[in-house]
Amino acid sequence: MDRRIYAMLTVFSLGLFTGSFAGYAQPLKQVDIGVPTNSSAWFPLYVAMKKNAFHEAGFRLRPIVMDARVAVAALVSKEVPYIAQMGSAISGAGQGLPIKIVMAFAAKTHHVLVTSRDISSPQDLRGRRVGISRPGATPHRELLAVLEKYKIEPSQVTVLGLGPDQNRMLALERGQVDAIVTGVPYNLLLEPKGFKTLLYIKDVIDMPLSALTTHDDWMREKRDEVRAFIASALKATAYVKTHRSEVLPLLQEFIGLPDQAMAALAYDALRDVWPDDGLTSSQGLTNAISLAGLPASTPLSRVVDWSIVKEAAAQIKR
What we know:
Layout: H1 3-6, E1 10-11, E2 29-35, H2 43-50, E3 59-65, H3 68-76, E4 82-84, H4 87-94, E5 99-106, E6 111-115, E7 129-132, H5 138-149, E8 158-161, H6 165-173, E9 179-183, H7 186-190, E10 196-200, E11 210-215, H8 216-221, H9 223-242, H10 244-255, H11 260-270, H12 282-291, H13 307-317
Parallel strand pairs: 2-3, 2-4, 7-8, 7-9
Antiparallel strand pairs: 1-3, 4-11, 5-11, 6-9, 6-10
């Protein structure tokens, strides 16, 4: 592995990968996936790992936390076979990198706009400071979509790149910004402190947030593995959406919530984000391509290949 990339990676320790796995005659192959920290967008994958769903396919998954741009570079150089990225993957694929989105983890965004007490409508954002992760990243693009919908000129809002969600939350609490774009469940942690969830971004724009992306070579050379991965993920998504009480403790654990009551609120807000079939809507994909700054003429086939997820879904039904 290139040391420059390796230095930027951190193994995401979930306490899942130590010891032996009883009941499996064959050794399990370790498969790495680059992830953007423990985002609720890919929570079904966490459940799949906790329930050993990938073991049936003969491998164990090791999430590795990566910045979005590093993740794409690591995938292109084949340092990792998979990444859980959407916006950066679309940008890279659209510009000709040999990668494709093959399954949607979050077909809708779970991001929200959280504001101070004195903001009662989107129009009140004029003249205010709004915290995002970084300029050009998905939260920034989503904010621009909100401003466009409510006919607010971007120049009327001061946008500040603040980094991770925790930094944005702290800036809002300290009064350094008037609003932030963040994700569920962080809004639930802020509401008891008097802040308000002004709107859910998914009610403003149809746009997927997270997806499984792999290398074009992997799709050709290891299609069976990719299909098995996707089948495991689809089964886990179905389990998550039909076993609410069983997965609430896992959701609480995964995203660090104080109690299961808050986990229940988060689950109810997130449930429709995870697609049953692993696909986005056509409009959602078109919007994601547009927000990534790619030309409207960009062929969808340059960005996504849904053939394997459809094969996996058909396989499950048999």
